[in-house]
Please model this.
Amino acid sequence: MILIGENINIMSKTIGPALKERNPKPVQKLARDEAEAGVDYLDLNIGPARKGGDELMEWVVKVVQEVTDKPLSLDTTNPVAMEAGLKAHQGKALINSISPARMEEELPLVKTYNADMIGLLWGIDGMPRDAAERGVIAVDLIYKANEMDIPNEDIWIDPIVSPVSVEINQVKACLEFMSMLEDIAPGCKSTVGLSNISNGTPTPLRPYLDRTYLMMLMKYGLYSAI
Model:
């Protein structure tokens, strides 16, 4: 199981100010803590970062790679910022993430910078309703990537985990899709935002929900969790 640490996030009350103020020490401490805790990748989430996103992403990539050799997951919806991070990154980065709406802009970055990518199954019309819709989105995304000579082995599929407190049928649909993934996308990996499953539930209950759903996903070959 590949683990992706998600604590370096501009929305965080603790680390967000350090990112905005370009204060490296708290960011580097958190990066070291996550690496020592055993994660395999560090996710750097700067959000949309419409203003100065390219400079911010370049800065945080360099700051984090000064203190750890863990590969980074670059997390932004700003393609200019994404490219700046990819240019600065040493080694093979992970692009988090590419949805159908952003394929045309971001698939070329995967090829140019020899990166891995997370294919997010958020359709043009929004959240897929069931496993079948997830399958259609996945096939289209993978086909477009393959057309650009991006191999399945570089593609991580995120079927989108929904909170159990919001829609139980989506929880089932995600599991059903995972059971189909190897057949429709041989060689592709899988990843999920695991903590989404327990969003909106009582805090003491969350670790139990997260662990239970993780075991259910692992039954179907889950490769990675964020």
